[in-house]
């Protein structure tokens, strides 16, 4: 299924010369801090919504239900549409914002989008920490969501364009590592502030997002633009060459520069990237751009990312223990992210996605079976089975962090030609936000009505996505981003579609 090797040249691909220079690493560290922001907002909402002081102030009906209404099913204790709106409003705002972010990223640069996103984060964090009613909470989440729309659209693109070919996977995976670090920080802060007397610790949790946001915003002022954008913006080849030499640590960058110029010349002929991405020749990229993020979300990962403390409280853990359990699962995820950075450029994307899919199928089915047999409508689950669920979720988190987590951002950034790259990345991030919003808005209600079947449903979705990867996703690590179109011409399925389009174009040209 995977294409043959295209590796040649000293840098491991297509005659490029490059090294990982301190300049590249510093630029990528600053940009990757946007992942910390994303992770922090994923992790913080589940923690504060499990805090009794937060619920009592903003969601009093939920507070009395959680405190032990014996007439409410265990599966339904947190089922509240207003509570899920607080969590998921961030993602619908991000969905809308990322569609606008594409034009900003294309016209004004990757750095500009990062700067806009970081600034909105700071304002959103201030609203959250100072909130006195639900409306201020929602304004905070919407501002944070708009910020995420800009940063998540531009940062993976920035990292892929800045990274040397042979380390592109590892550097791009650093974004997912930063996401895990952000979630871990959020979980640790939630665990500590819940013990503050007076019940105002949630204000610290919501406002602390301003710290990494400030770092990102200030850092973005000094970030260099990518060579691809410098050429695309005004055709300044000399400036792009100097930037490439500085990034790659060598003067021998002519081959890579020529490829960037060729890609830029093609991109200048595209007037409407969103309309052109619908062309048949881009059909493989469009399908993957939609399905990879969709499958990422239907694994059930964000059930753990922003509902982990809620879920652990559901199965019987106390307030502090549920927050500690969320920290524990995130440590496993962090370990998985580090392993992914080491192996993604060695084993490739496709093998990791397949291996992770099998492991996650087993994990979701195991949790569903335990919940079906040992978790009843009323009363707590036996302690040993509650901890068994926790152990299985740790395995699930590690596998996701090793495979589908980072590769959801990496693979789409690799497959798009320059002329549709920004639009394609917007579609990827918009799909992530939209599906995340739907799952975030419906999970608690789904858990209430389907109970343990919810986890079998997630497991079934993982089965489908693993089959999709096996049959339709080629390996993407061996080619440069400017030459990725070769992958589709050699794939057993996609070559038919791409070939038909090339024949149509040739026939049209002859007729004209």
Structural summary, described in words:
- The protein is an all-alpha fold and 512 residues long.
- Helices cover 78% and strands 0% of the residues.
- It is built from 23 helices and no strands.
- Helix 19 packs antiparallel against helix 20.
- The two termini are 37 Å apart.
- Residues 1-13 have low confidence and may be disordered.
Key words describing this protein structure:
single chain; 512 residues; mainly alpha; 23 helices; globular; disordered N terminus
Strand-helix topology:
Layout: H1 22-48, H2 52-58, H3 60-66, H4 81-108, H5 110-129, H6 134-162, H7 168-193, H8 201-207, H9 210-222, H10 227-234, H11 237-248, H12 254-268, H13 273-276, H14 283-298, H15 301-314, H16 319-347, H17 349-374, H18 383-402, H19 404-415, H20 418-450, H21 453-472, H22 485-490, H23 494-511
Helix pairs in contact: 1-6, 1-7, 1-9, 1-15, 2-3, 4-5, 4-6, 4-20, 5-6, 5-8, 5-9, 6-7, 6-20, 7-8, 7-16, 7-19, 10-11, 10-12, 14-19, 14-20, 14-21, 15-16, 16-18, 17-18, 17-21, 19-20
Rounded to the nearest angstrom, the distance between the terminal CA atoms is 37 Å
Strand content: under 5%
Oligomer: single chain
Number of strands: 0
**Overall SS class:** mainly alpha
The residue ranges in which pLDDT falls below 50 over 5 or more consecutive positions are 1-13
Q: In angstroms, what is the radius of gyration?
A: 23 Å
Q: Give helix % range.
A: over 70%
* Helical stretch tally: 23
Mean pLDDT: 83
H/E topology pattern = HHHHHHHHHHHHHHHHHHHHHHH
Dominant shape: globular
Biggest beta sheet attributes: none
